[in-house]
Amino acid sequence: MIDVKQLTLKYPSGKGVFDLDFSVKKGEVMGYLGPNGAGKTTTIRALMGFMQPNSGVCTIGGLDCIKNATEIQKILGYIPGEIAFLNDMNGDEFLKFMNEMRGTKDTSRQKELMEMFEIEPKGKIKKYSKGMKQKIGIITAFMHNPDVLILDEPTSGLDPLMQNRFVELILNEKAKGKTILMSSHMFEEVEKTCDNVLIIKDGRIVKQSDVQTLKNAQRKGFSIKPADVSTTLSLLKNRGFEVSITADNALEVFVTGENVDSFIKTLAQSTVLSFDVKYQSLEDIFMQFYSKEDK
Q1: Model confidence pLDDT, tens digit, residues 16-37
Q2: How far apart are CA 53 and CA 249, in angstroms?
Q3: How does DSSP assign 208-244, residue by residue?
Q4: Best label site of 1, 24, 34, 268, fewest CB within 10 Å?
Q5: What is the pLDDT of residues 151-196, one digit of tens each?
């Protein structure tokens, strides 16, 4: 549904995105991860037809994102990273305007979303809080029941309750077979909703993987309380394992997947009082990956 081939879009500063190649299949939810300035929003602007690439092609549903930008923008759902509204409009006037522009007559989905996000869009938009504006943006993106959604930091400004509602919404849309590309800093949100992730750094994609494979390939953490801390510490370090002592005099060990068996056999030479597995979040993995890339 979403296809990007050798996309390069360069700014005068030299920054931008370079030779991007990825696709988001029908029914897939793809997370797009990277720090500010890495190129996530630039990629999305190219997909929306807002910026002309220097080279390469991007299509949505077979339609060229530049040549068919107007047509694409009417049929997909989009939440920009920085939401801008016609501030002189009331919230309900804006939603009506968007429905008319798209030719949407059935507003039942809009009403469901307003109830889900607990919003009554009365009053001038310019007086709305950041969270209220974000809710309007979410409703606008989803209310015409699009098959494809492009979401740039969709939960920015939402409180934790509404963030959970958004995760619920994405999972519901995923169950319906919707295709979603979602840029987010909320790693827990990505972990709960996405099938696959792209990691972008300095304008280039440095990793593409399904979430579970990415987690399995990274280090696993263990917290150990041995009967003899110093002896076990020396034993593990002599075998090349990365070990640290925590404040409560436990040993914390990080092991790559292929070395787990060797780690267990080494540990069996000591008396262990307690043993816990430390499950890593997607954020932990992302930070490890970025640290590794910087070395």
Answers
A1: 999 999 999 999 999 999 888 8
A2: 55
A3: EEEHHHHHHHS-EEEEEEESSHHHHHHHHHHTT-EEE
A4: 268
A5: 999 999 999 999 999 999 999 999 999 999 999 877 888 889 999 9
Residue 94: both structure tokens together:
């804006």
CB 205 within 8 Å of CB 22: yes
Instruction: Give, for 69, the enclosing helix (H) or strand (E).
Output: helix 69-75
Amino acid at 111: K
Cα separation values, 227 from 245, 273, 274, Å: 14, 6, 9
* Token pair listed for 88: 């002189």
Q: What's the rounded Cα separation, in Å, for the pair 81 and 42? A: 11
May I ask the CATH class of domain 219-279? alpha beta
> Using an 8 Å Cβ cutoff, are 143 and 78 in contact?
no
Q: What is the CATH number of domain 2-215?
A: 3.40.50.300
Burial class (CB in 10 A: 0-12, 13-18, 19+), 109: middle
